[in-house]
Design brief:
Blueprint: H1 5-9, E1 11-12, E2 18-19, H2 28-35, H3 43-55, H4 59-79, E3 85-89, H5 99-106, E4 111-116, H6 119-123, H7 125-128, E5 136-141, H8 147-152, H9 154-159, E6 167-171, H10 183-193, E7 199-205, H11 211-223, H12 233-237, E8 244-245, E9 251-252, E10 271-277
Parallel strand pairs: 3-4, 3-6, 4-5, 6-7
Antiparallel strand pairs: 1-2, 7-10, 8-10, 9-10
Helix pairs in contact: 2-3, 3-11, 4-5
The structure holds S-adenosylmethionine.
Length: about 280
């Protein structure tokens, strides 16, 4: 079983032009979908996904834990941070608990702009466009490596008011940006554009949980033409710049404000995570 009918017939882009999904190569969004038990993945995605799993046997539950962090962080921003507008960059293929669903469950008037550069996510974007009576959801086909284009995009400026606080989520996406593209500088450009009272939530695979296995998967990804850069806790902490980290700081993803009982071993999922507020 590969994908759905529209994928076999050919996906369409924003202007309904045919899009080459490059299903002959593995892609991060589809590998993540595979680990989460979705159907939007192809043989090369599954092959590399399984290779990763041989190195890191818990990788599927780690992906689920990352996704849970996204839900907890967005709920925190909406419920405790009072955030009503969200910018979710590196959206992924829609699945359970998408940002607008979590935010609008707390505050129905929440507005969400999704950004991704993957044609498969673009083809799914309609599923993300859920305008409620008060809330609004938009999707931008753009690249995190060009923050200026994201910030100036008419869909963004028509949906979000950048003079008011925004919740920026960069969840499991920064590892796909190489050091040579200066991911810290890119994030800084986004942070500088946001109003005081804004928040950023980040999760990122950590190179310091199982360094040998992380090196193996990063190398394997590189052989398949995919950038994957696990980073240390200190490198991840630098993404927050001088914003105030929310308690408990930059911690393993399962240990960030868990629902219910704290996990016995928070470091069982190899992602760093944190949330910070612009003073
Ligand atoms: C692993 S998924 C994470 C999905 C979601 N944020 C989550 O954590 O559940 C990473 C997503 O980032 C997207 N992505 C990768 N590089 C990107 C870039 N340079 N600009 C925008 N999106 C990018 C991929 O297409 C993919 O959908």
């Amino acid at each position: 079983m590969v994908g759905t009918d529209w994928m076999r017939q050919g996906a369409r882009g924003a202007g309904a032009e045919p899009v080459d999904l490059r299903t002959d190569r593995p892609h991060s969004a589809r590998m993540y979908d595979y680990w989460l038990g979705g159907k939007t993945n192809f043989d090369p995605d599954r092959a590399l996904g399984e290779m990763f799993e041989r190195q890191i046997p818990g990788i599927r539950s780690m992906a689920r834990e990352n996704r849970r962090f996204l839900g907890r962080a967005v709920r925190y921003l909406a419920a405790e941070g009072g955030i009503r507008q969200f910018l979710d960059i590196g959206t992924g293929i829609p699945t359970e608990g998408n940002t607008h669903e979590v935010a609008q469950a707390v505050a129905p008037e929440s507005r969400v702009v999704y950004v991704d550069n993957d044609p498969i996510v673009l083809a799914h974007a309609r599923a993300l466009m859920a305008d409620g009576e008060h809330g609004r959801t938009a999707y931008i086909d753009a690249d995190l490596r060009d923050p200026g284009a994201i910030l100036a995009h008419p869909e963004l400026t028509g949906t979000l008011d950048l003079s008011q606080p925004v919740g920026l989520t960069l969840v499991a996406v920064l590892m796909l940006i190489a050091d040579r593209d200066d991911p810290w500088g890119l994030v800084r450009q986004l942070l500088d554009a946001l109003a005081p009272g804004s928040y950023i939530a980040v999760s990122h695979p950590g190179s310091d949980f199982d360094p040998a296995a992380m090196r193996q998967i990063a190398d394997a990804a590189g052989h398949d033409g995919m950038t994957l850069v696990p980073r240390t806790q200190e490198e991840v902490a630098r993404f927050f710049g001088d914003w105030e980290l929310v308690d408990p700081g930059v911690v393993p993803v399962m240990g960030w404000r868990p629902d219910g009982e704290p996990p016995a071993d928070p470091a069982a999922a190899y992602y760093w995570s944190g949330v910070a507020r612009k003073p």
